[in-house]
Design a protein that fits this description.
homodimer; Alpha-Beta Plaits; 2 domains; 5-stranded antiparallel sheet; binds adenosine-5'-triphosphate
Chain lengths: ~220, ~220
């Protein structure tokens, strides 16, 4: 079972740490502010207040024994770099960092970070996808331009069977899953009848899926 | 063609606005800081410097004519609320807001926001999924605990056919797509032979998918 240490318990760090705990993993939360540590103590396996730029303090909690350390410090880039370099030199196998700009990302990768995320940037991109497919709810882009997308069933299809809707020939998309209320129908049969409020998970090009989701 | 206005061009707002422009949409970018407006002028269709809490200023740019307005203000919650309420009362059909906490989300929905996102929180959750499925690449959570996930083909399956791998009986997951290099094989036939480097898109519970992705 992997063990994680999350340095910096701001909105991003705390959300990451609590989701890891919910999925059953041991998580050590680290922050230098005592009031943040107290608040986090209820939701994270173990917490400790220390300054992550202090290599001796990190050695004292045996940071090298964790499989993955995530450095989730934002405002102070110097602290971000120092905590990353200290974790790597104490032997941590995988160090994942948060950055605020592409330039920060480049620098963190050069000093040894294994993976860098830009949370606000990625969230902005994702919202743009959701907003521009009028019915796009969520999406995995498999390659540029081709994706698996969750859309609301177009009104014209309500009452039709999958066979009658003829999705592959008319729109070039393949239906993978129908979400009907709380029930998931994986690879529905051709006699499935579409209902109001159904959600469809389809695969195809973004244009074809866009065309399908706009028929109403 | 939908038109968007993005109020607040911080990391999230700017990333959202530029992605919308890249996808071919008209975007009006709004911020009260002149230097931010100057920097954004190169990447956004049109920009204007104004205080979004000032209803007359919003009326002057005809904010009511935009299909969707996104309020991406973070630090100052009062500005966030005022800009949301002003946009709604000027007739904007869909107002999407960014919030920093669940409590802020509740308040924004009560004053008329149509949709609220918590970017840092969502990014923290997403990274937790990526880190805990050693092979999880991307994921759509259809319901709590059930998702469509992109994983690397487990080493034990390389050289086997889909029929021999017996995914549904042994792991309880259904294979939807195989990504083999640049080729996408949607709903592969039972005689498909798995190759090194293949990416699999499967549907199932997060535990079952986690079990499959950890067999190596
Ligand atoms: N040297 C350090 N050692 C330990 N914790 C630190 C250190 N420097 C900053 N932190 C903590 O990291 C957390 C997140 O940092 P900060 O607020 O700068 O990032 P942020 O990008 O605004 O965060 P978010 O967007 O996730 O809320 C804070 O709780 C802060 O106390
Ligand atoms: N009343 C206002 N009118 C217009 N723009 C505003 C107003 N208040 C704040 N802004 C702008 O909104 C932008 C984002 O706000 P802020 O920095 O508070 O959010 P943030 O959550 O830190 O942003 P991000 O995480 O996206 O970088 C800033 O560029 C700021 O100038």
């Amino acid at each position: 079972q992997q063990e994680f240490a999350v340095i910096g318990l701001g909105r991003f760090g705390l959300s990451l740490a609590t989701t890891l705990v919910e999925r059953g993993y041991y998580v050590l939360g680290i922050d230098r502010e005592r009031d943040i540590i107290q608040h986090a103590a209820d939701v994270i396996t173990q917490v400790v207040a220390l300054d992550a730029t202090d290599e001796n303090a990190l050695r004292a909690v045996d940071i090298g024994s964790f499989d993955t350390v995530i450095v989730a410090i934002g405002e102070n880039f110097e602290c971000n770099i120092m905590a990353t370099v200290a974790s790597k030199s104490l032997g941590v196998r995988r160090v994942v960092c948060k950055a605020r700009t592409e330039r920060q990302r480049d620098i963190l990768l050069r000093v040894g970070a294994d993976h860098v995320v830009l949370p606000e940037h990625e969230a902005g991109q994702r919202l743009a996808y959701v907003l521009t497919g009028p019915n796009f709810l969520d999406q995995i882009e498999l390659e540029p331009g081709i994706s698996i997308t969750e859309i609301r069933v177009p009104k014209t299809m309500v009452g039709e069977t999958l066979l009658e809707s003829d999705l592959r020939r008319r729109y070039g998309v393949t239906l993978l899953v129908v979400k009907h209320g709380k029930t998931l129908v994986v690879l529905p049969a051709t006699d499935y009848v579409f209902q109001e409020e159904d959600l469809l998970v389809v695969i195809g090009t973004n244009e074809d899926i866009g065309r399908l989701s706009e028929t109403n």
